[in-house]
Amino acid sequence: xxxxxxxxxxxxxxxxxxxxxxxxxxxxxxxxxxxxxxxxDLRFYQGFAMFRQAAMxxxxxxxAELGTAVNETALIFGNTLDVFARAGLQTLEGATQEF
Length: 99
Hints:
Layout: H1 3-7, H2 24-35, H3 43-66, H4 74-78, H5 81-93
């Protein structure tokens, strides 16, 4: 199981190719082609997405602690703050992935 599968367990063990789900490389190529931007390292974008999710998790955790969260599972999702923050850091410190 990859780190991405851990964060999105709904895709764990699924044959994405058989379902026609594009690879990260294919999706990045489509994005850069559509925007006219030159291909570049995606770590910033991926890391930013993880830190953004960490911030949302922190807000959810706080609302759960205050008792103002709508869903009873809010604290569980709020506790993913450190997972997403570490994922963002690992992404930014990882090997360059240019597409």
